[in-house]
């Protein structure tokens, strides 16, 4: 299939117009579905009467508003949807079919892992980093992953990230052609002690939170550490899923940490001799709102990803069938308000059991992401190592495509040791798929020859001992 000669089809003007219209309608439906999902706090009556998406979207004021291209937007996700559209019930306008390219043009590291000091000028092409084991390739990818919220692709403690022997912490500086125009991003810590938090400056001005990074770029990655995703603990898959959601909905992280905080308060309260029932109910109500929002955002992401995977089936990588289990499994299609009431009842009924267990046994923290190899109709964990890797690559590429479609801006992709386990044909197909996403990708490997098929589409850098050269 991969190697088949494909004849370039010739389309008439009318056919091209039809295709463009078709693409517009798909993107429109995605935007509407996503926005609709985020209206989770709308009461059931409102949800029922707002089944037509546009009105439900405008109910997003319940969640706060965003402002894109000078136009007020409703809905939790609206700020991240970029200037490609405005509220569906007023006026819908999509950007070009190819997402806008976001790229790093400069990268400077100070005391970052094995880099004492590094300064790199980049053009907008993909970047291939090759070098021996331990040279610092993944470290460089990790530095770029700090241009997104969170603790980076290794989820490391900041104290470990600072170069051994450095006393002033680490810093990462990048000049980026971003989603909102050129931006200079500086992030790092001030010292190398445990428990440090990461600071962020945008164009020299301190940012309130690292979440502000998502206004400028989205960074997605695939690393060898993720190879065990299908066979490892469910917490790994939940984290993976939540990162997928986060890349479209930056609010998801805040909801997850607030849910976590509320759950810990409930667990603490339940461990007391006679917990105050009114206090417990208040906490449980908060958990119900946040927990259902999290579950719906995850479900919506899976729905969008599934639709995209179905449309692009039959490519060089197998496609994944995705579903969620473990929390409110039988509630598909119920209004958010009803789901909250149901979760609230579960929490209230489960107080005795949870007090005995010392933890909350129901909630979005118990969900598992179930992944199937669609073509083989088999659970991912039962597939071969190579099949699992191909499935994961397909999933990450589909997600990158979705982020590009939804935001109008292609994400920056970090693909660590991506080419190692693929044969020549698959590698070439992978590079084409990555290139078609329209963004900038950073790829690593030990052997430059593995990237030959990329040709002039990438610049090639050699990494050795914490230094980078052409
Ligand atoms: N905080 C630190 N300070 C100094 N050196 C560090 C620090 N953390 C990791 N290193 C060093 O960085 C090197 C690892 O770099 P990295 O993981 O980027 O290698 P790599 O080029 O990706 O190698 P491989 O091909 O084996 O994956 C190791 O030699 C490690 O000891």
Could you please say which CATH topology of the largest domain applies here?
Answer: Rossmann fold
Q: Which structural category fits the helices and strands? A: alpha/beta
**What is the helix fraction of residues, given as a range?**
25-40%
Overall CATH class of the largest domain:
Alpha Beta
The structural domain count equals 2
Strand content: 15-25%
Q: Examine the secondary-structure arrangement and name the CATH architecture of the largest domain.
A: 3-Layer(aba) Sandwich
CATH superfamily of the largest domain: P-loop containing nucleotide triphosphate hydrolases
Which distinct ligands sit in these coordinates?
adenosine-5'-triphosphate
The number of strands is 19
Give a structural overview.
38% of the residues lie in helices and 20% in strands. The chain has 470 residues and is α/β, with parallel strands linked by helices. The chain is globular and about 65 Å long. Residues 1-11 and 21-96 have low confidence and may be disordered. The RecF protein is involved in DNA metabolism; it is required for DNA replication and normal SOS inducibility. RecF binds preferentially to single-stranded, linear DNA. It also seems to bind ATP.
Task: Kindly summarize this structure in a few lines.
Keywords: ATP-binding, Cytoplasm, DNA damage, DNA repair, DNA replication, DNA-binding, Nucleotide-binding, SOS response. Helix content is 38%, strand content 20%.
